[in-house]
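<context>
A single protein, sequence plus fold
<entry> Chain with its tokenised backbone below
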Amino acid sequence: MTAEAPAKLSVEEYDALPESERIVYDAARAKAEAAQQAELPYAWRQTLQDVAVTIAVPKGTRGRDLAVSLTRTSISVAIKGQEPIVAGDFPSPVKASSSTWLLDNGEVSIHLEKVNQQEWWAHVVTSAPRIDTTKIEPENSKLGDLDGETRAMVEKMMFDQQQKQMGKPTSDESKKMEMLKKFQDAHPEMDFSNAKMQ
């Protein structure tokens, strides 16, 4: 039997709750969510890049006994001649050519690579109970895991934060000051004593 979750509150209603009531509300929603997820015939976890689904099948099941279909928008996993263990549409597309499945020791392991690698999924298939993606705490990632553009942006943000903590100008402020200095050097006849940086 699924634990009954308290009614979902709007952001305004949630923000209006005293801190002690928020803690109780969050705990009740988390407990109900965990109970719903435990009732699924599979377990799953995700990162921003991919989703991993694990399905227990009877010992002795071989690959040829399974009917597995992974498309860009849907999944179906069944033991041939039986109802699917999981079937339905993904909440967002996956890279079908990079998605794989493996049967090992009575367990089907499915790896799905997300097309949009900047979003969390609320469920594996849209017919399944949703998780609260606002409560996901992502694993720490390494700068080396990021693409070049994202890495440069993160490094700039980290540098700017360090500069602010030391009371020094950020990279944007330094660029503005450098531009002003070049302009001053090119126009020594102008008075810059009252110039302000914004």
In short: The first strand starts at residue 43 and ends at 46.
